[in-house]
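ok trying again, last paste got cut off:
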Amino acid sequence: MSAQLALPLALAPHARFATFFEGANAQLVAHLKQLDSRVTGEVVWVWGAPGSGRSHLLQAACADRAQRRAIYLPLAEHDGLQPEVLDGLDSLELVALDDVDCVTVSADWNRALFRLFNGLQAEGGALLLAAAGPPAVTRFDLQDLASRAAAAVVYQLRPLDDADRLSALQMHAAARGLELSDAAGQYLLTRVSRDMAGLCRWLETLDAASLATQRKLTIPLIRETLAEHAGA
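nice, full thing came through this time. structure:
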């Protein structure tokens, strides 16, 4: 276990249930909040487009269990990660594997995942998986693993509409102690990538600019900050 836990697995500080704007995903969020009190050995598969909030929810599920044993593994972020990283994780109470579809074409990873599925089911731990698509369209090398994945509880992350995206942006700003007006929020939304991950990165940049200049988060400050980073 020590080798696995030595990985850079710090959870993003903003990735909590309290900072996830549910929109049409209230049922999924409620399920994840109650994951440990539902079926033992449960497997949940969450899928959606990049930037839809998959990573946020997986990290929130782990952070929500600060007193429990849980681990979050972003598989797409570790090119050199070996399947052996999963060994022993079936002793945990929650294992969250992000971008699992990045490794399901590998025979070695399939065998390691299959062992993890079986081990967690035997021990009563929960397995939370995220991918770009549902199990039915995900390529697996091992048919037994495909069958296990097909039996998971599957949720599609529904995209936010424009009004929800503005509300989500304002919620994230408020979590940073920033006040973002409707006009300022709309200004930002029409000028940068509209996925929440990208918007949160811009909020972090704007937060730093606001602090450095001792100015409120207004359209002029946003305009100046965007111009400063245009070539970055």
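cool. The chain is about 40% helix and 10% strand. Residues 1-6 have pLDDT under 50 and may be disordered.
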